[in-house]
Design a protein that fits this description.
Blueprint lengths: L2 H24 L4 H47 L2 H14 L3 H13 L3 H14 L4 H21 L4 E6 L2 H4 L7 E7 L8 E6 L5 E5 L17 E8 L11 E7 L9 E4 L2 E2 L4
Parallel strand pairs: 1-7
Antiparallel strand pairs: 1-4, 2-3, 2-5, 5-6, 6-8
Length: 269
């Protein structure tokens, strides 16, 4: 029990004595009965505080259970990349249309569009009439065209990852923010909300990504790229969050994706 709870209990006890003392002076209750009432009041206060403390800790316990569950799955099956490779090797030996569909979805999750299209195509050869495979293949082709068009638009491509040993400390549903900031201004230039389960991921910031309408990336030169967990659900870091950061002195000169690894405690920044 911390000092706050102890002080609150003492205050409740004092309040009870002040409230019951006039009754004692009037002789309506014996000292023994009032003593029992005071003890009962304190016990009820402690119980209420204990219940409040337990209910307040419930989200923390739930998150801990989710983390342990995710860690157990990872221990049994490995990372998404490992699962993808295992499934691919299995399908190369024992081809199955549903298996190819699942493999394509895994590739899509990792934004490996060429590999996803190949997997859906393999499944389509086994099941030419499968509407699900046809739709997935067509979707993949559309995404490839969109990706090719997006490459021609000026912007900042960011690759965000998190080491497995760090990822195990968080629930898959933990929010991750990827931010663009200028000169340590409190308000980010751009912000994208993802989750730990989405990592690793690649995204591109363009003029359409900026929070202020009418703003253009070309107005800026030096930009900070930050990716951090958000245990509070907001971009403001709290105790326990981890992040990765990189400063671009001139983002226009970047020819390769900016690689951000989320692993450092926000306390060190």
């Amino acid at each position: 029990m911390n000092g706050f709870y102890f002080s609150l209990i003492v205050m409740l006890g004092v309040a009870a004595i002040i409230a019951l003392w006039p009754l004692l002076c009037l002789g309506r209750f014996s000292k023994k009965k009032i003593g029992i009432l005071i003890i009962l009041l304190i016990v009820m206060s402690v119980s209420a505080l204990g219940l409040y403390d337990f209910l307040g800790a419930a989200p923390v316990l739930q998150q801990k259970m989710q983390i342990e569950k995710a860690a157990k799955i990872k221990d049994e099956w490995g990372s998404v990349e490992q699962i993808t490779e295992k499934l691919k090797q299995q399908l190369m030996m024992h081809s199955d249309s549903k298996g190819w569909y699942l493999l394509g979805k895994l590739y899509l999750h990792q934004m490996q569009l060429d590999e996803a299209a190949w997997a859906f195509e393999q499944g389509g050869r086994l099941a030419p009439q499968d509407a699900q495979l046809k739709q997935a293949y067509q979707q993949c082709q559309v995404l490839k065209k969109q990706a090719a068009a997006a490459e021609k638009i000026p912007g900042i491509v960011v690759n965000v990852s998190m080491p497995d040993k760090v990822k195990q400390r968080f629930s898959p549903e933990t929010v991750v923010f990827v931010l663009l900031k200028i000169n340590n201004r409190p308000m980010p230039l751009a912000a994208v909300k993802e989750h730990v389960s989405d990592l690793p991921l690649t995204l591109k910031f363009t003029d359409q990504s900026l929070l202020l309408p009418g703003t253009h990336l070309t107005r800026y030169q030096a930009i900070d790229v930050i990716a951090r967990t958000a245990l509070s659900g907001t971009p403001t870091p709290v105790y326990g969050d981890v992040q990765g950061e990189k400063r671009l002195k001139n983002w226009r000169t970047c020819r390769q994706p900016v690689k951000i690894i989320i692993k450092e405690s926000t306390e060190s920044f």
